User: Fold these one by one.
Assistant:
Number 1:
Amino acid sequence: MLFTDGLEKVTAGDARFVLSHAADASGLQATLTQVGVTKPKKFTVTADPGKEGTIAIPADTYLVQVVLTGSATVLASETINMADQSVSFTYATGEAANNSVGLVNKTLQLVF
């Protein structure tokens, strides 16, 4: 699979989260929930097999949970820091059938 890491400008105060679906699974949905705040906001992005989903979000720290689209069973979960004007390329890998889906993150800072 080949994914092109887009480096389009990120607005000040924001970050970009890119979910790249390289796992052996049907469509995936990532939910990003702010951590360490009183009223956390949630953001979601989906990606079909071999595709990417992208979302602009406020710069902050997030709990990322990945599920099969339409499911509630968490396949992968981790916390990531989304710095101001950064891009996180998050690759979902592994197999849903044996619960081995994991996330590989590559973050680029100061994309402006």
Number 2:
Amino acid sequence: MNRFQPIKHSEIECRFCDFLTPLSKHAPVDTPWLLGASYAAFVSIGALVPGWSLIVPKNHKINLTEDYTRTDFWNFVESAASILKDQYGDFSIFEHGAFDFDSQTSCGTGHAHLHMVPLSFSLFEEAQAFDKTLRWEKCLVSQIAEKSRKSEYLYVADHFQGEHTQGNICLLTKETSQFFRKVIATKLGIPDSYDYKKSKMLDITLQSFETLSSNGWNSLKNTRSA
């Protein structure tokens, strides 16, 4: 089984639900590098930069609007963020906020996930320059549900501060696929490599998994023995 062959799970075809099934066996890149009671951290297939990671809820849902107000969500994200920053430095976060399982905005993955991407530039500034027709509004991460009003959205923040993260939200008037991947690929000078289904970047992804999983499981052992 791989990320591009979703299976039926609870009457929904979802590859992330399959990755999180305890008895399932998967390749390293489809295995969490950090695992909690309700959330998991994966490396991203198609990682354009080292360390690109996804925070995924174990329960199937389409977006993270409710999770952004949960203490256990932020406890897990901050644990993953600490490891990611130690290994790769500062990072941006973003979400393609869909409201339908098969929306193009979910980018072919109808299971909520937050991207954490180590970058040396402002992702928000590059997003503004990439498509000047989009309208952005400042938004605390905890306000996404209120601000989105059940409209599909793009959310991005360059400075991670846990539940107090201040970023920007754009309400979409049409489904938009892999927007931030296109922005990052263009900035890196490899615009044709944005599509994770075609450009899997397995060398970067596997190296990131080895680095993060080693530190992730060591972190869990230290926590349990404290």
Number 3:
Amino acid sequence: MIKFKHVTQRFADGTVAFCDLSFSVDDGELVLITGPSGSGKTTIMNLILNEYQPVSGEIFFDDQPINQIKHSKLPEHRRKIGVVFQDYKLIEELNVWENIALPLYIQEEKQTDIEDRVTDLLRLVGLVDKALVFPRQLSGGEAQRISIARALATGPNVIFADEPTGNLDEETSTHIINLLTKINELGTTLIIATHDPLIIKRLKTKVVDLAELQANLENEPVKKEVEDEKTPSKKTTQKPKTKPDEEEEKQFDKQVSIEKKEQEPIKLKLSKPLNANKIKLGLSSLFSKKKKPLKDQDKSKKLDEEKLDEEESMFTNNDKTE
């Protein structure tokens, strides 16, 4: 399903993620990508999503070179890959039900289909009773389970879990791994990027170890400019680098026409249906290319929480009425 052939990724500031990386992931397989922080685990995810192109080498998804996917087909490609993040990436302005339903609304699925799918996913992760609460009211383990449910919403071919237990205690981590392996047993291809020794020890499966690659890089000169190495060879032609984040946000803006005059009753009652303004507010955090350090995220989260108090009280009152 996924194949990396001699892939090297280096960024404009000279940072080298990895060099000459080759591995494959078969349909329905469970694969661990291991290595210390900074070894390139998240970069592999971004390359599979076609967020950017590697400096050299080739990447295939379902036997198709990823760099040949047309820009107009990128949203369709990315819907095949569900992502579970270490910091959950739940939209604070939306409640649990709305967070899971969001990808389905964007795809303009039928209301009844969305209701069935969201209800089934909440049952799968064991959080039906949390449908109407907001992300900041969840524990870390609950938030991660909701993140997994959202990643499964569109029925992706692959789930990429990026350090899914990084912010969790040992007991909660065990529950998350049990859930992910259950999903894999149901037929979904699963890639887990982790440096958690408990996961590595417990899951006896294929391992792509980036630590040795990183050690080899320390002895290699890496001062050449990235642009020099991006000159396409005769065998491989690469399109000019675009701004997928910015372009995909425009795509979402076009697709997020989800307010309807008539709404069928939903199985798990919401205080009010999703609306485009709420979604645009929340999506900015998912499409921002700027990555804040965890400490800065914590500070901004406190400010966001203060900002959301007034809004949440309105939803809470409506939920009680429901």
